[in-house]
Amino acid sequence: MIEETPLRRHLLAPWRGLGLYLLFVPGTLLYCLFLTSLTLTGVGIGLLLTPVVLVAIRGLLDTVRGLLRARTGVAIDRPYLPEVAGENAVRRFARLLSDPATWRDTAWLAADPVVGAFTAALPALLIAEGVWGLLLTAFAGDVLVRNGGGDWYLFIPVGADYPDRPLLQFGTAALGVLLIALGFAFGPRLVGAYGRWGAFLLGPTEASRLKLRVRHLTASRSDAVDASAAELRRIERDLHDGAQARLVAMGMSLGAIEHLLDKDPEKARLLLTRARESSAQALHELRDLVRGIHPPVLADRGVADAVRALALDHPLDVEVTAELDGRPPAPVESAAYFAVAEILTNAAKHADAERVWIDLRQTAGLLRVSVTDDGRGGASLDGGTGLRGVERRLGTFDGVLAVSSPPGGPTVVTLELPCAPTT
Amino acid sequence: MRVVLAEDLALLREGLVSLLEAHGFEIVAAVDNGPSLRRALLEHRPDVAVVDVRLPPSFTDEGLQAALAARREVPGLPVLVLSQYVEQLYARELLADGTGGIGYLLKDRVFDAAQFVDAVRRVAAGGTAMDPEVISRLVARGGRDTGVARLTPRELEVLELMAEGRSNAAIAERLVVTERAVTKHTANIFTKLDLPVAPDDNRRVLAVLAYLGR
């Protein structure tokens, strides 16, 4: 959130609070619908209706969460358990109703008209009452009395003799000013309290947080296991078809040479050349294999220089800037390196880019890498460009990937990996 | 010619010692780790150092760092770096001070004793010996640096061989042309790359640097 001046915050808080509070109107309507649809469960319609209403409630409360975040600075995560694909109506109904977040949502809706009135809406109400006090003093009191009416302004009677009692009028005005001042003074604090109340009911409980976490870990672990198994198979195949086969050929050549040395030195010499070529070839293949597993420059220098080396070898014009203090843990370095390599490949293959800028930096325990290209844009995670795979692999490290790629470019792919520097 | 050798694998170290001794080099020190290499280089001031990139105790680019550190103290100290893999990044770092006397070769090149010994001699004499692998990866990437992009294919070929550290005579032999033709090509290369007038050896190093895209 952009830092705003305290004055601005105090001036705006009452109206922000009021705006938040007004959402209780659709909220209460949905709450009534929810109760109605629950009572209809007995006749069957409720089974179909309740989930629809709940989805609407969640939609509304997502808006509330967003507004609370924007207006009070309280970040509230979505607490809902994930949807299950292809379940039947009864299951869906049961799952939604057994999600603790559902009941906390409805508790919020039920309490909101009252709680909101005493927190979010209170500053605006105070100011309105204050303004009414000033109006009474100015002319409204006279008008009321002249038309035979009367009123109490808090504890001050506005009766038939009101126009003739300046002390009462002065008291009304002073009280009005005080209320307006209170409204502005306590606005941010009251709206903030409403935000915390929101975080309490609308955020995930510790239990659901853990549940979501377990789901995420289960998924990312199975991705990681699959990926490493595939990787091992690839290495095995490469070794088997490559270096191992070369070494066999070399051994055979050497055996033959031993045999031929006396009988046919000329042929032996030919075989020797071939054996040497085999060994060079085996080395070459091993080198490529090692580069694909863990590039030596990554081990030597860390991720910044490894990305620089990658940039030097890349056909596009790649510019690298890095601001890292110390080296992230080796697995994080490796994950970031291979992600960048894949993103670069994408930029060259799909984006029609000419220049690429890579920026690596470490802030607050996060390794953040952004890759920007001047290509034609339009890239997405689902574009079949391998970005989804990168995202999955980063997921194993609790990393995230974001793609911004409007048509016409530029494309910015940003990845963040949690890490603590080791040195 | 006095040589300091650094290689941590005993088998390879002994192989290199006997290979170099057989070709008339004098091995003044053969060490197996970074700190000893640093000491040996400063103590013996050899005519040429043959150094493995990866050395104990850290098993990272210790050998390269020791060589670069020694060259900072003894500018132009000839160093031939051997490695299981080549990185343009390292090639640039080695060449960066522009004084020459630098070699950067894959370990496989040791297989061809004559060529390897030739490379050691060239480096000792202040020339360069870049591995063809470095060169071929540069070519694969395409010359987008303005100077290099202006070269004709033939001049590029000459520059590649020059980067490997070959003399005009050797380049002429390799391309099956006269030495005079090669001299003409090199002169064109120097002009196109905007190199200052300087002794030929120095210009050759600068040309290689331009080639590596500095």
On the 0-100 scale, what is the average pLDDT of chain A?
A: 86
Largest interface: A-B, 21 and 22 residues
Helix content class of chain B: 40-55%
How many domain regions of chain A? 3
CATH class of the largest domain in chain B: Alpha Beta
CATH architecture field of the largest domain in chain B: 3-Layer(aba) Sandwich
Q: Unreliable segments of chain B (pLDDT under 50, ≥5 consecutive)?
A: none
Count every beta strand of chain A, where a strand is a DSSP E run of 2 or more residues. Answer: 7
Oligomeric organization of the protein chains: heterodimer
- Major sheet size, sense and barrel closure of chain A: 5 strands, mixed
Instruction: State the order of secondary-structure elements of chain B, H for helix, E for strand.
Output: EHEHEHEHEHEHHHHHH
Could you give the distance between the termini of chain B?
32 Å
Q: If strands are numbered along the chain, what order do they take across the biggest sheet of chain B?
A: 2-1-3-4-5-6
- Output the number of helix runs of chain A: 14
Mean pLDDT of chain B: 85
Name the strands of the widest sheet of chain A in spatial order. 3-4-5-7-6
The count of helical stretches of chain B stands at 11
Question: Major sheet of chain B: size, sense and barrel closure?
Answer: 6 strands, parallel
Beta-strand percent range of chain B = 5-15%
Radius of gyration of chain A: 35 Å
What does this structure look like?
By secondary structure, chain A is an alpha+beta fold. Chain A folds into 3 domains: 1-204, no CATH class; 219-293; 299-418, Heat Shock Protein 90 (2-Layer Sandwich). Helix content of chain A is 67%, strand content 10%. Chain A has helices at residues 6-22, 24-39, 45-72, 89-98, 100-118, 122-146, 166-202, 206-241, 243-263, 265-293, 296-301, 303-313, 330-349, 387-395; strands at 151-153, 156-158, 317-323, 355-363, 366-373, 400-404, 411-418. A 5-stranded mixed sheet of chain A has the order 3-4-5-7-6, with helices on one face. Chain A is elongated, with a radius of gyration of 35 Å. Chain B has 2 domains: 2-131, Rossmann fold (3-Layer(aba) Sandwich); 142-211, Winged helix-like DNA-binding domain superfamily/Winged helix DNA-binding domain (Arc Repressor Mutant, subunit A). Chain B is built from 11 helices and 6 strands. A 6-stranded parallel sheet of chain B has the order 2-1-3-4-5-6, sandwiched between helices. Chain B is globular, with a radius of gyration of 17 Å. Chain B starts with a strand and ends with a helix. The mean pLDDT of chain B is 85. The interface between A and B is medium-sized, with 21 and 22 residues.
